[in-house]
């Protein structure tokens, strides 16, 4: 028995509780207790006992009609704590800075927040145009390279839930802002992102500027963030879009590795 395994054996309930929470976090939706027991090779009685305790503490919720268990509000609060401590920004900031130094164009790191992207890191390259993508700024995900990269990594049901109708494409409550956008067009754009392995936009956020972005995937393949580089559409960088995308892909892959994903 390894030292790590021996240490876990001294506190089996803690190890089993964390295993259940990790298993629930990796699922696309609530699951039956029997499925948890089978997946983790635990006695059903143990799983039911631990689920009852976690339900009492708010870490799981029981859906009696479905006979399933899902993550509760206390688990969400852990996630909020993760966001407050900004590990993505701390881990991704140096990667974005290195990318900007190598390419000579401005870069940023963003996360998906509903139908918006929220920018966590903004690294400006010298003598490059100012950008609207400052830290804390929100923009419509379907218009940005970072947003498209992350949306392309979502399962179809989740994507459809985010964009149920044309009104979902409106920006800041303005119905006219939806413009040409429909769900069918979004699917077409995201198909292109998956085919290319990176997302692009040209003048849709700021006229004259283009971006390439790549999603940062977590341990279950969910888009935790995205990294992008922005440049003048009429510059030499535009001709190097594939080269820039490869560099962004490498940085996104490294950040995925740093947050625990096997990529």
Number of strands: 8
How helical, in percent, are the residues?
40-55%
CATH topology value of the largest domain: Beta-Lactamase
Q: If helices are DSSP runs of H or I spanning 4 or more residues, what is the number of helices? A: 11
Protein name: IclR family transcriptional regulator
Domain IclR-ED: 74-261
Keywords: DNA-binding, Transcription, Transcription regulation
Pfam family, one: IclR_C
Structural notes for this entry:
By secondary structure, this protein is of the alpha+beta class. The chain has two domains: 3-78, Orthogonal Bundle (Arc Repressor Mutant, subunit A), CATH 1.10.10; 86-258, GAF domain (Beta-Lactamase, 2-Layer Sandwich). Helices cover 46% and strands 19% of the residues. It is built from eleven helices and eight strands. A six-stranded antiparallel beta sheet has the order 5-4-3-8-7-6, sandwiched between helices. A two-stranded antiparallel sheet has the order 1-2. Strand 3 (106-113) and strand 4 (116-123) form a beta hairpin. Helix 2 packs across helix 4 (44-56), helix 3 (33-40) packs across helix 4 and helix 6 (87-103) packs antiparallel against helix 11. The longest helix has 18 residues, at 241-258. Mean pLDDT is 86; it is low at 1-8. This is IclR family transcriptional regulator. Keywords: DNA-binding, Transcription, Transcription regulation.
């Amino acid at each position: 028995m390894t030292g790590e395994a021996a240490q876990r054996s001294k506190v089996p309930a803690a190890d089993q509780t964390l295993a259940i929470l990790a298993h629930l976090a990796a699922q696309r939706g609530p699951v039956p207790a029997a499925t948890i027991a089978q997946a983790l090779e635990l006695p059903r009685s143990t799983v039911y006992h631990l689920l009852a305790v976690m339900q009492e503490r708010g870490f799981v919720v029981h859906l009696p009609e479905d006979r399933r268990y899902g993550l509760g509000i206390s688990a969400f609060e852990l996630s909020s704590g993760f966001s407050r401590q900004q590990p993505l920004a701390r881990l991704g900031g140096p990667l974005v800075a290195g990318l900007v130094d190598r390419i000579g164009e401005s870069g940023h790191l963003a996360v998906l927040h509903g139908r918006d992207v929220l920018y966590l890191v903004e690294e400006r390259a010298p003598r490059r145009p100012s950008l609207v993508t400052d830290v804390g700024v929100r923009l419509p995900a379907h218009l940005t390279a970072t947003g498209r990269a992350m949306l392309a990594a979502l399962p179809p049901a989740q994507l459809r839930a985010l964009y149920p109708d044309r009104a979902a494409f409106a920006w800041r409550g303005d119905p006219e802002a939806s413009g040409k956008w429909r769900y069918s067009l979004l699917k077409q754009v995201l198909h292109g992102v998956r085919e290319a392995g990176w997302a692009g936009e040209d003048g849709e956020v700021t006229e004259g500027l283009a971006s390439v972005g790549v999603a940062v995937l977590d341990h279950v393949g969910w888009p935790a963030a995205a990294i992008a580089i922005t440049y003048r559409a009429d510059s030499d960088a535009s001709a190097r879009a594939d080269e820039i995308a490869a560099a962004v892909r490498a940085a996104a892959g490294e950040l995925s590795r740093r947050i625990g994903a096997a990529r």
